[in-house]
Amino acid sequence: QVLLLACAEDLECVPGFQQKVFYIEQPFEFTEDQPVLNLEFDDCKGNNKLNFEVSNPDFKVERDGSLVALKNISEAGRALFVHARSEHAEDMAEILIVGANEKHGALKEILKIEGNLGIPRQKRAILATPILIPENQRPPFPRSVGKVISREGTEGAKFRLSGKGVDQDPKGIFRINEISGEVSVTRTLDREAIANYELEVEVTDISGKTIDGPVRLDISVIDQNDNRPMFKEGPYVGHVMEGSPTGTTVMRMTAFDADDSSTDNALLRYNILKQTPTKPSPNMFYIDPEKGDIVTVVSPVLLDRETMETPKYELVIEAKDMGGLDVGLTGTATATILIDDKNDHPPEFTKKEFQATVKEGVTGVIVNLTVGDRDDPATGAWRAVYTIINGNPGQSFEIHTNPQTNEGMLSVVKPLDYEISAFHTLLIKVENEDPLIPDIAYGPSSTATVQITVEDVNEGPVFHPNPMTVTKQENIPIGSVVLTVNATDPDTLQHQTIRYSVYKDPAGWLEINPTNGTIGTTAILDRESPYVQNNIYTALFLAIDSGNPPATGTGTLHITLEDVNDNVPSLYPTLAKVCDDAKDLRVVVLGASDKDLHPNTDPFKFELSKQSGPEKLWRITKLNNTHAQVVLLQNLKKANYNIPISVTDSGKPPLTNNTELKLQVCSCKKSKMDCSATDALHISMTLILLSLFSLFCKSFP
């Protein structure tokens, strides 16, 4: 079919093509030597030396204007350009090729605005029609794929081709005959690597200077079905709840085909090749051939997890291109479908009554309650939750679930007393973590009774109170009574006697009467002892019954010790140094401390003992309740001096400590203190004094 789109506007002869643009419908195949359409060219002067050139080398125009194919062609591209030249005129015509479904739209678009035709109204110097090349062509190469036409006839003009695929990577794929304009490909193309090439063509003179262009030349690679569908997103795992309605969507399988998505080469259809296992039905699932959605096709009754051979199904899924035709390429993947459990089976005790025996005073697990549940052990529909619903008013029992076995572990958490109750009866119920489905309920088998027997044991005596506290003054006389303890035997049905003994007495200060429990002192209680912490001394005692074997109870005694003034204060420091030429005669600040407690400590009284000699050498001045300052009254010679000092606390009665402060008078030069000779000097002075004293004593017998 040929439609006239542009024609002469009047009957005058207009040089050139009498019809500029043609529209033809893409046939299934252009047949060799079969005319496609007729082109009418007239230079108004007889068409002398008329010559036609076609942009596609697979076509030619006969002398009479008939466009014919040189061979059978299934794909010619979207347009053909025909260049005509005679002695007196030249012109160009455009032939648009569209599919049947594009015809109406293409024609409408062509006719929309005059001037917006397939080619511009103005004459083109270079005509570069798009070129289509099938991928995966076999040798020989190079292979002619198209032709570029120039209406300029400049002598020595040459075509030059550039762009990606020519002089840019990947280089050397295309080349052009610089004289004829014929374009050729040098190797096999892969559409999935590069689908389109955008090249530029220009015309140059002999010197290489551009005469015309550049003009864009588009080369498109025609897809072939050379890629299999691939499943790239695995593993594919879907879940569906047991009992789901027929037609429930489980999952979607999507494959990828690298071929052209606009062609059947990438048009995929899905199919289930195999199902494992095949029970209870060999066709448990269906896959939408176009979307890839997998849905259930069996009734909810057959989709019962508890009656299935296995809750896991594996489907081998095939994806085939070419719309699923036999010639299509295929790819496969495995879809794993898991039948999820829902809580449609309540847990049931394996028996109605359980027995347990426990000794009084003992805690821990006493019995494991067993249940059965047909649901999936990996879900809350199987995991059990136990509750004591009767028989536990004192909260002596607790029950927890064993996560591995699902058993109920019944424990005693508060020691039982045989003398209070020798038997206990508990009512236990079991449920699931997940709620049951609406049409299922818990029945009588979800409750059970536990009979517990308590065994009597010989329990140790109990001290009252425990711990025991008493306050005593330190330094009380040895043999003083501290207190009398009281212990009773909880085994009231057994008539037993109790005897007492010391268990732990860190300082060895105490004793206890084994019969009546009276505690007395065996040594002086000292509040300042390292065994006393925060004024409290702690000792432990035992009460032992006469059972077989005997049972023992432990009692703790805390004695709070009151302080008495039994420690003299101590003085610090005991050594001071001063330069023999010191200008500041304040020798040292003394401090006092006392192990006793207030008011048996500060304020302290500081005094100097009587000084010998005609002159007083030092004095002491009180600074505060705990400190005083020693001051020299004059510079002293280099020597050691002992200053007698007394310090008295404020206790009633007060205690005094008479001590000495050793004072070293040293020589000081250039900020260095030298006390090395003071000891020798002190010794010499001491020997002289002893000699004088001896002579004095002999003079007065």
From TrEMBL:
The UniProt function text for this chain reads:
Cadherins are calcium-dependent cell adhesion proteins. They preferentially interact with themselves in a homophilic manner in connecting cells; cadherins may thus contribute to the sorting of heterogeneous cell types. May act as a negative regulator of neural cell growth.
**Gene coding for it:** Cdh13
Q: Which Pfam families match?
A: Cadherin, Cadherin_pro
Which keywords fit this entry according to its UniProt record? Calcium, Cell adhesion, Cell membrane, Cleavage on pair of basic residues, Cytoplasm, Glycoprotein, GPI-anchor, Lipoprotein, Membrane, Metal-binding, Repeat, Signal
Q: One MF term in GO for this entry?
A: beta-catenin binding
Q: What is its main location?
A: membrane
Concerning PROSITE patterns, the annotation shows: CADHERIN_1 (PS00232), CADHERIN_2 (PS50268)
Instruction: Give GO cellular component annotations, separated by semicolons.
Output: adherens junction; catenin complex; cell surface; cytoplasm; side of membrane
The protein's assembly and partners: By contrast to classical cadherins, homodimerization in trans is not mediated by cadherin EC1 domain strand-swapping, but instead through a homophilic adhesive interface which joins two elongated EC1-EC2 domains through a region near their Ca2+-binding sites to form a tetrahedral, X-like shape.
Compartment(s): Cell membrane; Cytoplasm
One GO BP annotation here? Answer: homophilic cell adhesion via plasma membrane adhesion molecules
Membrane disposition: Lipid-anchor; GPI-anchor
- This chain belongs to the protein called Cadherin-13
Q: Gene3D superfamilies recorded for this chain?
A: Cadherins (2.60.40.60)
Ranges for domain Cadherin come to 158-231, 232-349, 350-463, 464-571, 570-681
